[in-house]
Every structure is written in structure tokens, then in C-alpha cells.
# Entry
Amino acid sequence: MSVVLETTKGDLTVDLFIKERPKTCLNFLKLCKMKRYNFNRFHHVERNFLCQTGDPTGTGRGGESIFGLLYGQQAKYYEAEQLPVLKHTKPGLLSMVNVGDNMLGSQFFITLGDNLDFLDKEHCVFGEVVEGHDALLNINEAICDENHVPYQDIRITHTVILEDPYPDPPGLEIPVHSPEPTKEMLDSGRIAADEDINDMEGKTAEEIEELIAEKEAKARATILEMVGDLPSVDAAPPENVLFVCKLNPVTTDDDLMIIFSRFGKIVNCEIIRDRQTMNSLQYAFIEFDNPKSCEDAYFKMDNVLIDDRRIHVDFSQSVSRLQWKGKGRGVEFVGGKAFDPNKEDYKVKGQFEREQSKRISSDQHSKRYAPHQRQRDFQQRDKYQGGREHREDRDGRDHREHREDRDGRDRREHREERDGRDRGKHREDRDGRDREDRREHREDRDRPEHREDRDRRDHRDHRTNRSDFDNRGRRGERDNREERRNHDRDHRERRRSPDRSQKQEDVSAQKRIRRNSSPKKSHRARSK
# Structure
């Protein structure tokens, strides 16, 4: 069974526990049906705990059950249901308020936190919010006073019963229209629920811009505190420190100290350098002993030319010199010591650097300041690296190199373009010649005299091939006849008797011996 509670922060859809709390659900449904919750305000809101409503008077001491409306003041409250036990374990649970002696009326609250077990034995859970948790979060974030009363009213504007399983008790008169709220109900002394809050009303444009900038700065400071970049929200950068940037790498601490010292006493001047190479990072911080000197230097030194560079000057936004003293103790500004032009050890150094300076004798001045200051040639102003002659030579050299690079690049591009054009033209000529040769060959082949020669040549080749084939056939037949003749002769010899064969072999052997042993006659004797 569900009920929709329409509030000024959004709609809440509630499912009721009919089986576990039948009497409490009956009381709640009939009060919604009688429009008794319309225009009731949430008179008690505690963040991450609960928000309470259901009192038509808005004081937390009023309200009665549906039985009081039907049967009179003696039935104003009814006894709470304790079994089964339903616990306050999560946000969004609806629970009736116990007015004392385990008696309930019309007031109820909605939990806004987890594990509120200490409320289980005293209050009666009868429903749960299933839709509209965004509206519940909006109620939880309401701004309240020390008594947990919202500065701006949060009210139930209407209730809609989606399903009612209980029949109406006798004597219950259901109103046709929602009743109009009384003047006492609306006059709560707070900002009305539908009233538009405008903080900018009655202020000039400059005041509005300043207020917006202040809010944005406060929001950014809160974020920086959350991520650990600021010790506290109220921490602000010092007003007597200047930030100088766009410096020339050859500019040293001494140069800045001498230039800015005319505006007042300088407590500390430091050019930020790389930790490994000790090269200048081209920005510095200058600390004066009072904000007035810092302000004068800001207005006079911005966009001033120092070592052929236009510098930029602004107030420092760094809080690196703010030391957090602990929670509730605030912060402490850790500054340097006063500047004395007659002394050279004006910079603030760490303990390790001070110990190092003690170990080095006073005559080793260059070794003392080597890590902190850039080496420079002690020559006349117009002859060192930043002089006019050097700059003209450098500009001329750069111009020549740029011109040479540009001419070389143009020549290379022209040569590549020419080579590409020649290759394309050569390829086109070659392709044209090949096409022309193929066309001429095809035309020559299709002429009548060439066709006759080709036919005669093909006929001659065919006849030659045929004669070769016939010759190969005749040679094969002759070889076959000779092979058959040899085979027949071998067969006849094998058919003879072994003795006869042996005798013939002996006779043949004797003839060979006599022929070999007889002396050879000369050719002349044989001829006689």
C-alpha cells in the first residue's frame, strides 16, 4: 500500500507495512484521506538523523490520531504496536513519534541516517520511502538554527493515497476539497516555502561582483584545504610580498635587491632556481617590512625594463611561509630578517646552508655564493653578453643563419620539385613509346603478307614436328625387333642340353686360346 507525500522539496513515495503495523497504517491512511497532513511543516530537521512533521500547529506538541477525530479527546492517542520488532537501520524509514507511555498520535518522522538502533524500543516503524530520495537529501541539507528548525519552511503540500485496503470507519466524513490553511499555520516566523531568496537585492553592481568573487574565493579555499594545499580556509597570502616574473636569466638576487630597495626596507629577496643546475627559473619573491612599501613597488615597477626584459610584478599568492600551529591555534607567518645593504648575508638560509657558510672561510667569497648566484663577467656594461654590440652581432648572425637556412630549404625544395617533374615526364615518354611499339607490332602482324609468311612458317614447323615423330617411331620399332631377336636366341640356347652347351663353350674357349697364342703375321705376309 503506497502514499505519495508532495513536499516543497520534492515528492516522496511511501510503502506501508500493512501486515506488521495494521493499526498504525490505518491511522496514517485515514489521516491522509482527511487531508490532516496538508500544509504541515517539518518543524525539526537534524542532519543525518531525522526530520519530523505531522503537527498542524508546527510546535511539536500538537496533533491527534484518527480515533480522536472519531471518538473524542479520550481517544486522542492510541497504544503503539511493538511486535514484530522493526528497527531503524537505514535512511527513509517512517516511524510514529511516541508522545509518552508508548502512545501515538499523528506526528511521525523520517530517518536520515544509518543504524539508529537507540530509537527501536521507543518509536514504531510503519513504512519506508521507496521513491524520492533526492527530495529526502534536499531536506537533509536544509539550513537550520540551533534548535534544528529550518530557516525556510519545508511543508507537505498534498497527500495522495494510491491504494487503501481499509474500509472507512463509521462517522468518517471525507472532505471533497483540501481545506485552506489557517493564518496561524502559515505564520511560522520563518521564510516562506515559496518565497524567493535574493541575496543581491538592494546592492550595487560593484557590491554584487565583490560578493560573488568572495564566495568563489571561499569555495576555492575550501577545496584547497580539503586537498591539503592550505593549512586552513581562513589562511591568506601575506600582503607585503611581491611576485616578480619574466626575469632575464642573468639577473641576480643582488640586482633585484638594489633596484627594489628604494621603495623600503626589504626583509627577503629570492630568485627561485632549479635544484640541480641552480639556473634561474626567471621569477622571484621580494618581501618588504610593511605592506605600504610593497604596494608602492607594485604600482611603480610593473612592466619595467631590467636586463633587457620587461618584468611583470604582482602581489604574491603563495602561502609557503605560513606555518600551521595546530587545530584551533591558527597559522603563523614565517618571514625573513631585515635587509642591511652593508651586509651580504641578507638572504634567509636553511640550517644546512648556514653550517656550510660557517665551514667556508670568509676569503672564499666566490665559493660561498656559487650555488646561489650565476657566474657573470665583471666587464664594462656595453661589453658583456647583454651589451648592445653583442646583441647586434647576435642579431646579424641569427639573420644570416636564417637566410642561409631559408635559401638552402628553397633550393632543396626546387631541386626535389624539378626531379619529380623530370621523372614524371620521362615515365610518360617511356609509356608512350611502349604503347606506340605495341600498336605498330600489332598492325604489322595483321598485314596480308605477314599473315602468309606466318602461315607458311607454322606449316613448316608442323611438318618438321611430324617427321621427327615418325622417325622416333621407326627407331623404336627397329629397337623392338632387335630386342625380340636377342631374346629368341637366348631362349633357344637355354633349351639346348647342358653337355652340348658345355662342349660348345669348350670349343669356343680353345679357339680363343689358339688365336691368342699363335704369332701374328705381318700385313705383307697376310697379303701373300
User: Anything to note?
Assistant: The two ends are 155 Å apart (CA to CA). The CA atoms of residues 3 and 161 lie 5 Å apart. The domain at 2-186 is CATH 2.40.100.10 (Cyclophilin). The longest strand covers residues 103-111.
